[in-house]
Design brief:
With 141 residues, the chain is mainly β. The protein has one domain: Metal Binding Protein, Guanine Nucleotide Exchange Factor, Chain A (Beta Complex). Helices cover 15% and strands 43% of the residues. It is built from three helices and eleven strands. A hairpin with a 5-residue loop joins strand 1 (2-6) and strand 2. The protein is globular, with a radius of gyration of 14 Å.
């Protein structure tokens, strides 16, 4: 299954290869203030492959907060954060915002609330290495 998504204006788009095709896609609704205020609901397939295309990299605003171990890629044009990355031991891991998915993929979503409050940095990075997408490639416009 290929999951396609993009920010509102299309400056940031992606294709997530998800094999085998899942009967449903888990959608983690994080309770941190950034995700709540920006509509960030995240998913990943650690065995998947993510290809990200950025038309105009100058229009991306990287945002870090808290432990500063994850970068929210926010489009300056439309304000949407379609993905988050975390560099761990020289490798980039990512999650994608299900609210940016095309209609076909959105029909498979299974949302659930999550909270990472109180998670220490080591635990957080280990969780990302296990659960986030590890095959991530960025392409310019």
């Amino acid at each position: 299954m290929i999951v396609r998504g993009a920010c509102h204006c299309g400056n940031v788009s992606f294709e997530l290869t998800w094999e085998p095709e899942p009967p449903e896609i888990p959608a983690r609704a994080c309770d941190c203030t950034f995700c709540v205020k920006h509509g960030g609901v995240w998913t990943s397939n650690p065995k998947g492959a993510l290809r990200v295309k950025i038309e105009d990299p100058a229009e991306i605003s990287p945002y870090l907060f808290g432990t500063r171990t994850a970068t929210f890629h926010v489009c300056r044009r439309c304000g949407v954060p379609p993905l988050v990355t975390s560099e761990i031991e020289g490798r980039v891991y990512a999650v994608v915002n299900v609210n940016t998915f095309d209609a076909a993929a959105r029909a498979k979503l299974k949302p659930s609330p999550v909270s990472f409050e109180g998670e220490d940095e080591r635990t957080r990075l280990g969780r990302r290495q296990r659960n986030w997408i590890a095959d991530v490639v960025f392409k310019g416009g």
